[in-house]
From TrEMBL:
Family: Belongs to the cytochrome P450 family.
Gene Ontology terms: biological process: fatty acid metabolic process; sterol metabolic process
InterPro entries: Cyt_P450, Cyt_P450_sf
The keyword Iron belongs to this UniProt entry's keyword annotation: yes
Molecular function GO labels: heme binding; iron ion binding; lyase activity; monooxygenase activity; oxidoreductase activity, acting on paired donors, with incorporation or reduction of molecular oxygen
Protein's name according to its UniProt entry: Allene oxide synthase
Organism listed in the record: Acacia crassicarpa (northern wattle)
SUPFAM superfamilies for the chain: Cytochrome P450
Domain of life: Eukaryota
Taxonomic lineage of the native organism: Eukaryota, Viridiplantae, Streptophyta, Embryophyta, Tracheophyta
Alphabetical keyword list: Heme, Iron, Lyase, Metal-binding
């Protein structure tokens, strides 16, 4: 439960000016950028400023800064209460802020501003979001059998490789499985990307396409001597879209052919086929594959590291309910309270997308736990999600992975789990920016744990940083098979 009662609005808190400084124009942004990437690192960048200003709300600059970003100034909101302003659509605008203080060229997406960059006030946002929600509802019956089919290939690959080497990279198999699932979900369960011009490299094309767009927000992890060279190369000018034009064209053509039935339905919704296809490719690559590429290793990182005690509890719950219910169904998954809690805890402790941005539509007042602050119309608000979801005023031992955290009365804290661009207790709609596949992500994470603990009793893992800077790198160093499987 919460370590103290968080102030969740309503109370009259003292109005304070927002601390912090942007420094000299241009030079202040460069200095903060070097702190963020090189001198301090991401988490210390934020924690040191919280300490310095004795406030979880403060002014700072966020990367990429000059010359890619025309204005890098933000107001950071880093606690569970102030963070909520980012979901208040009548008060904040999310036009072109998906990647923060800059927007990649629309040349990456066929010349269109895709749905993720649209604000809720734009009519086409509601149209696209409605279509996404309609499509997901229409595929509801496919979720479990299709994902289980993809997982069977993943675990077969893991077992074979582990038998040969005595250890195995989870990411290698998870990445391919994630792409295959997304492609088959969008194009039909019997479709196979290997039978298209993508062959077996579809997920690699998406990774290159993502990397070029997001390069200004990343680091190559080079030795310190190369830091300033890297900074100059990645953040002086954006990498041009022509670098991945041929790769993107292959992805577009593959989806335009294989997802013809989905695009037919989009046209019935009133969407232009070409624009719908570019949106579909973006959703498949950026939102879905990019999210799963990060989320599944994060889940296995924390569960794998939690130890044999939690593994036994999960295995006991999963096997008993699957046996009693006669299989893996929506009903049986809903009865697995510990499994659900473990998934929520993974989403809380390491949200897949750590950043949220929005601009104030009007002059407004926000609250933290202990003060109120004025934000002017047009100012950029930035939330660093891992600090908000590890707020010590809300969660006991927030830095610890506690598998049982959301069991029983603990589920009252789910309203402070923000991983999906909204509260876990809220639902995506055409009128908000919450992830349309929010419930699908939770479902798939549960199914992955169920399938894992039907096969294995326990495991050990080595965890590193993903080479793509998305999520974690997870290597199984032991896999103890279930004697009953």
């Amino acid at each position: 439960m919460a370590s103290s009662s968080p102030s969740d609005g309503g109370s009259k808190l003292p109005l304070k000016s927002i601390p912090g400084t942007y420094g000299l124009r241009f030079f202040g942004a460069i200095s903060d950028r070097h702190d963020y990437f090189y001198r301090q690192g991401r988490d210390k960048f934020f924690s040191s400023r919280i300490q310095k200003y004795n406030s979880t709300v403060f002014r700072t600059n966020m990367p990429p800064g000059p010359f890619i970003s025309s204005d890098s100034r933000v107001i950071a909101v880093l606690d569970a209460i102030s963070f909520q302003i980012l979901f208040d659509n009548p008060k904040v605008e999310k036009r072109n802020v998906l990647d923060g203080t800059f927007m990649p060229s629309t040349a990456f997406t066929g010349g269109y501003r895709v749905c993720a960059f649209l604000d809720t006030s734009e009519p086409s946002h509601a149209l696209f979001k409605s279509f996404y929600l309609h499509f997901l509802a229409s595929q509801h019956h496919n979720f479990i059998p299709l994902f289980r089919d993809c997982l069977s290939e993943l675990f077969a690959g893991l077992d074979d490789k582990f038998s040969d080497k005595g250890k195995v990279s989870f990411n290698t198999f998870s990445d391919k499985m994630s792409f295959d699932f997304v492609f088959r979900l969008l194009c039909g369960p019997n479709s196979d990307p290997k039978n298209t011009e993508l062959g077996s490299n579809g997920y690699k094309l998406f990774e290159i396409w993502l990397a070029v767009q997001l390069a200004p927000l990343g680091s190559l992890g080079l030795p310190k001597i190369f830091n300033y060279v890297e900074d100059f190369l990645l953040r002086t000018l954006p990498l041009p879209a022509w670098m991945v034009k041929s790769d993107y064209k292959k992805l577009y053509h593959a989806f335009s052919k294989a997802a013809s039935a989905t695009l037919d339905e989009a046209e019935r919704f009133g969407l232009k086929r070409d624009e719908a296809c570019h949106n579909l490719v973006f959703m498949a690559g950026f939102n879905a594959y990019g999210g799963f590429k990060s989320q599944f290793p994060i889940l296995m990182k924390w569960v794998g590291s939690a130890g044999a005690g939690l593994h036994k509890d999960l295995a006991d719950e999963i096997r008993a309910i699957v046996k009693a219910e006669g299989g893996i169904t929506f009903a049986s998954l809903e009865k697995m309270t510990l499994t659900k809690s473990v998934v929520y805890e993974a989403l809380r402790i390491e949200p897949t997308v750590p950043y949220q941005y929005a601009k104030a539509r009007e002059d407004l007042v926000i609250q933290s736990h202990d003060a109120s602050y004025e934000i002017k119309k047009g100012e950029m608000i930035f939330g660093f999600q891992p600090f908000a979801t590890k707020d010590p005023f809300v969660f006991e031992n927030p830095e610890l992975f506690v598998g049982h955290r959301f069991v029983g009365e603990g589920d009252k804290l789910l309203k402070y789990v923000y991983w999906s661009n909204g509260r876990e207790t809220e639902e995506p709609s055409k009128d908000n920016k919450q992830c349309p596949a929010k419930n699908l992500v939770v479902l798939l994470c549960r199914i992955m744990l169920v399938e894992f603990f039907l096969r294995y009793d326990t495991c050990t893992v080595d965890v590193g940083k993903s080479s793509s800077n998305l999520g974690a790198s997870v290597t199984f160093t032991s896999l103890t098979k279930s004697s009953s499987h």
